[in-house]
Amino acid sequence: MDFLGNLAFGFGVAVSVKNILYCFIGVFLGTLIGVLPGIGPVATVAMLLPLTFNLDAATAMIMLAGIYYGAQYGGSTTAILVNIPGESSSVVTTLDGYKMARQGRAGPALGIAAIGSFIAGSFGTLIVALFSPLLADVALRFQPADYFSLMVFGLIGAVVLARGSLRKAIGMVVLGLLLGLIGTDVNSGVMRFTFGIPALAEGISFVALAMGMFGIAEVIYNLEQGSKTRQTYTSGLGSVLPTREDFRLCAGPILRGTVLGSLLGILPGGGALLSSFAAYTIEKKIAKPPRRFGEGDIRGVAAPESANNAGAQTSFIPMLTLGVPSNPTMALLIGALIIQGIQPGPNVMTQRPELFWGVVASMWIGNLFLLALNLPLIGLWVRLLAVPYKWLFPAILVFCCIGVYTINNNPFDMFQLVLFSALGYVLLKLGCEPAPLILGLVLGPMMEEYLRRALLISLGSPWVLVSSPISLAFLIASLGLLASIAVPLIRAKRQELA
Amino acid sequence: MRIRAQSDFWCGLLFAAIGVATVVLAREYRMGTAARMGPGYFPTLLGYLLVVLGLTLSLPSLLRDGESIPRMHLRPVVVILLSIVVFGLLLVRFGFALSVFVLVLLGALADPELRLREAAVLALFLAAFSVAVFYGLLGLPLELWPKI
Questions:
Q1: A360: closest CA among A116, A115, A61?
Q2: Is residue B100 part of a domain?
C-alpha cells in the first residue's frame, strides 16, 4: 500500500497549480522546439535549461521532464512529415511514417504515434513508480567500489550501444571524465587544470559545453550542408484519428513496443534508440502479412513510437535512483539537479520525496498534455516545419548564447562556449559523437570520489573492485557488453545504425 | 607513408595529445598513493588511458583503409564562432539588447542565402523577443542598454 500512498503523495505535488503550469509549458515548448528540423531533444533541453534556474528543484525537474518528452514527440512529427529524424531514436519512424505521409496518410500516422506514445508513457511511468524504490533500496547498500563499477558499467553501456567507432566513443568518455575534473579538487582544495583562470575554479560551465557541442557545433555542421531540398507533406493532412481497422492492427504492436521499450529503457545507453529499433524489427518479423513493412505500414509507426516513449520514461529510473545517466538528456537533468544543489543518488528518494514522486506523477500528467496538445494542434506544428533553416539558425545561436550567459551573468562563459563549439565541431568532423563525452563529464567527479573511497578502505588494493560481488557483477557485465560487439549479428546491427 | 584512415589517424592523435598534456599538467599535483589518492592520481590514470586509446586508433590507421575526414567549410565555422566572441565582448559595455542585435547580424553572414535586409529584420525581432522574454517575462538581471 506504500506504493499507492507514494503515488498519491506525488500527485499531490504534481497537481499544484504551479507544477501543472510548468509541466504544460515544458511539454509545449519541448514540442515546439523539438518539431523544428535539426534540433534534437538534447539541444532542446540544453537551450531551455536556463528557464528553470529560478524554480524550486521539484518544479524545475517537472518542467525539464516535460521538455524532454515533448521534444521526443516533436522529433517524431518531423520524422513522419519531413523524413528528417530529429534524433536517432526516430530513425525507424521515418521508414514507414514518411511513406504513409506520401500516401496522404500523415494524419493517422501522427495520430497513432500520439496514442501509442500515451499508452506507452503511462505504462512506463507505472514501471518507474514500481521499481525505483526497489532499486534505490538496493543502491543504498552499495559500497564505494560497487558504485565505481556501476558507473563503469553505465559508461560502457552507453558506448557500446552508441553508433560509430567503439574506440572513439571510449575516448570521448575519457575526455569527458577529464573535463569533469577541471576546477577545485574537493579533497585537497587544489585547483586542477584551471590555467590560473578564476572562473574555472568551480569547474567548466556544464551548460556551455552542452550548448556548444549539441547546439552551436550542430548549427555549423548544418550550415555546411547547404540548403537541402526537402519535401514536406503537409497538404491533405486529413483526420488525425486512425480508423477502426488501424486500431485493430496496432493494438498488438503498441503493447509489445511498450513492454520492450520499458525493459530496454532501463539499460544504460539503451533508452529510446535501442527500443525503437528492436520493436520495429520484432513487428516486421511477426507481422502477417509482412510485405507492407517499409511501404507505409501503420504498425511500423505504432511499435517504435510506443517503444521509444516507454524507453524515454524508464530511462529516468537509473537517473533518479542511482544518479547515473543512461543518455545525454539524463546527463543534462543530473547537471540541473547539481545546479539546484542536490546530489543525485539513492538518497534523493528519501530526502526529497516531493521531488521524486512529484516528477513521477507529473510524467503521467505530461503525457496527457502531450496527447491533448498533439491531436488538435498538429496543424500548428506542421506550419513550423515550413520555417526555413536560414531563419532558424540565428535564433538557435541567440538562445544558446543567452542560455549560457544568463547562468552566471559572466561574459567569460561566452569564451567557454566558443571553445566547446570549436571542439565539438572538430570532434564531429572526426566522427566522434558528443553523447558519451557529456556522460563522462557528469560522472567524472563522482567516479574519482568513489574510487578514492574504495581504495582508501582497501588500503590501496585494486582487488576491492573484484572482491565485492556486486562490483564484480558490474565489471563482468561491462566485459560482456564489450564482448557482445564481437558477435557478428550485433556488429552488423551497429553498422546499420551508423 | 600515406595515411590510409585519415579520420581514425587524426582522432587518435588528438586523443593522444590531450592525454600527454594531461599527464604533464598533472605532474604539478601531488600523486599520493593508491590508498590515499592525491589530486594528481585520477587525472594521470585517465591521461595514460587516453594516450593508449589514441595509439590504438592512430597506429592501425597507417595500415588499414578507413574513412577520410569530410571537407571543412571555413565560412560558417569562423563566422559563427566570431559572432559569439563579439557578443561576449559587447555584453560588458554595450548592454544586452544591442549585443543580441549584433550577434544575429554577424551570425547571419554564415549563410550566404540570407540577405542583409532579412538579417536586419531578424536581428531586430530576435533582440526585441529576447528582451521581452528574458528581461520582461523571466525577470533575469540583465543590463539592457549601453553604459554611457
A1: A61
A2: yes
